[in-house]
Amino acid sequence: MEEADIVVVGGGSGGAATAGRLSEDGRYSVALLEAGGRNTGFRTRIPGFIAFQTPKTNWQFETVPQAGLNGRRGYQPRGRGLGGSSAINAMLYLRGNKWDYDNWAAMGCPGWSYDEVLPIFKRSEHNERGADAWHGGDGPLNVSDQCDPHPGSIEFVEAARQLQIPLNDDFNGARQDGVGVYQVTQKGGERWSSSRAYIESAGKRANLEVLTDVIAERVLFDEGRAWGVAYLQDGEAKVIRARRAVVLAGGVFGTPQLLMLSGIGPGRHLRGQGVAVRIDRPMVGANLQDHVDYIAGFEVKGSYFIGQSLKGTLKSAGAILQWMRHRRGAMTTPYAEAGGFLTVDPASPAPDIQLHFVPVVLEDHGRTKVKSHGFSCHTCVLRPESHGTVRLQSIDARAAPLIDPAFLSDGRDMELLKKGVRAMYRILEAPPLADHKGRDRYPIDLNDDDALERLIRARADTIYHPVGTARMGSDDMAVCDPRLRVRGVEGLYVADASIMPKLISGNTNAPSIMIGERCADFVKADLAG
Q1: Which of 134, 251, 386, 525 would be a feasible disulfide site paired with 409, CB 3.0-4.6 Å?
Q2: How far is it between the farthest Cα atoms of the chain?
Q3: Measuring CA to CA, which residue among 300, 366, 302, 293 is closest to residue 333?
Q4: How far are the Cα atoms of 19, 114, 255, 479, 517 from residue 391, in angstroms, in the given order?
Q5: Which residues, in sequence order, are CB contacts of 1 under 8 Å at separation 6+?
């Protein structure tokens, strides 16, 4: 039987940070178990290859049919392999709003206010602009300005400025509202995933073992303490012993799935699946929140914007060569290059809508190739009221879980999204973007409230920020306590976005890394105590 002091399950944004920090001083032996591969090839290193992922790097989950989306199944891409979703995402470095973390603390999560998490964000970050009151300068996670943003993205920012929307060159600084060009987790024109930051950059530490292409089946317990993990490798059942602690970082879908397979979850559901109930914890797999999103797409004549045509293909080929030679050019794009944060409901405590501008026509998450050039813009509801669930589909750990975000099940989300779409169109119809005379692929009378709602239900989906399925808190229903320990057992922690009690106002990769850093701190303190 293999052994380590600490076993971390999942090498994504949170798991890589946890394993890297726990192994850095050599005090503990750490084993990191990851279901995918190492993600060291060009497919994950070239930023512009986001659209060319395969089942080796992307779980490609789907939701159950969504009543709020006319019965459609939503798409739920999740990163597979070291780096997790940070190996396939748009690389935007965004932390959310100060209010989000202060609200977590007010909800019963002491230690998680903005002033308390800001030092962790700074510790993890190496911002190429340099350190200041909001940013770190020597952390492992490299953050940079975009190398070569598309001119159309700059035009989006100018169109917003024409409408008196304030410019913002740092959404993680003194204020969040406004529009601008996003910073990205890149280094020298390459994607800088959590694995590159915390695992690859560490070199070969004798006390860190990384096991890839393994499927964790369940956590093992003895008298209420986690002592190991059962897993599959090449079809063979194996066990690894954890002498001191087990950390789950399988993500918002994988972590509740593994907890339930281990007997921790909603008792009735587990018994229905034939799983012996260790702890009846109804909130495992509950509280699922995600940013519901609507995309407008405009086709533009010519090849100014990125697109599918002979000229566009030749441009892309040239961009790949430029990236190979100089790590510059169009292949450094995160696609969601510009955007911003708006407050469309005066009662909101912080911006309630986020925009992502993309200099290409997007259809069905990029899976449907549109043979034209143009641009798109996302509008998402930042703090949705709709909550869903993750449940077991099978007791086979290799089977995908049942994912139900319950999109738009709370009418407040629809009302806010409609306001956001209208605000987005005002920007897209302002110069200089309007000068391109783009053709709206889904034209709508924005004054027809019913028609707009029908269009949203026909086309909306996720923008890939699920959280909350193993939420922390001080109440009896919480899955984890505010030090990320699973309640009711010893030696078991969670280090990913599933612990968020409420979805933050922005992209979730940077907060997930911060959570991984904090979990490592908590584990170290507990073991030292």
Answers
A1: 386
A2: 69
A3: 366
A4: 27, 32, 11, 15, 28
A5: 228, 239, 240, 241
C-alpha span between 49 and 239 (Å, rounded): 36
> Half-sphere exposure of residue 389, counting CA atoms within 13 Å on the CB side?
13
CA distances from residue 215 to 29, 203, 254 in whole angstroms, order as listed: 21, 24, 10
492/221 Cα distance (integer angstroms): 10
Which amino acid is it at 109? C
What confidence tier does 185 reach under pLDDT thresholds 50, 70, 90?
very high
Tokens 């070969």 correspond to what residue? 204
Helix or strand (DSSP H, E) at 450: helix 449-459
Separation of alpha carbons 400 and 256, rounded Å: 12
d(CA 199, CA 196): 6
Determine the 3-state secondary structure of 198 from DSSP: helix
Contact assessment for residue 190 and residue 327, using Cβ atoms and an 8 Å cutoff: yes
Q: Is 387 a catalytic residue?
A: no
In the predicted structure, residue 369 carries a pLDDT above the cut 90: no
Grouping H, G, I as helix, E, B as strand and the rest as coil, residue 433 is: helix
Domains of the chain: 1-139+188-288+466-529 (3.50.50.60), 147-181+292-381+409-459 (3.30.410.40)
Per-residue confidence band for 1, with pLDDT thresholds at 50, 70 and 90: confident
Helix (H, G, I), strand (E, B) or coil at 494: strand
Residue 233's DSSP bridge partners are: 214, 236
CA-wise closest residue to 261 among 282, 277, 241 = 277
What is the rounded CA–CA span in Å between residue 419 and residue 122? 34
Q: What is the DSSP string of 383-431?
A: S----BEEE-S-S-TTSPPEEE--TT-SHHHHHHHHHHHHHHHHHHTST
Query: In this structure, what are the phi and psi dihedrals at residue 45, rounded to the nearest 5 degrees?
Result: -90, -30
What contacts 447, CB < 8 A, 6 or more positions away? Answer: none
**120: pLDDT confidence band, cut at 50, 70 and 90?**
very high
Q: Position 253: which residue type?
A: F
pLDDT of residue 236: 96
Which of 146, 189, 93 is closest to 513 using CA atoms?
93
Q: Which amino acid appears at position 156 of this protein?
A: F
Q: Catalytic residue among 135, 150, 291, 465, which? A: 465
Q: Which of 64, 394, 392 is nearest to 260 (CA)?
A: 392
The pLDDT tens digits for 442-487 are 999 999 999 999 999 999 999 999 999 999 999 999 999 999 999 9
DSSP 8-state assignment for residue 175: -
Whole-prediction pTM value? 0.98
The pLDDT of residue 202 is: 81
| Token pair 């090839």 in the structure block, residue | 41
For 203-252, how does the pLDDT look when each residue is reduced to its tens digit (9 = 90+)?
A: 889 999 999 999 999 999 999 999 999 999 999 999 999 999 999 999 99
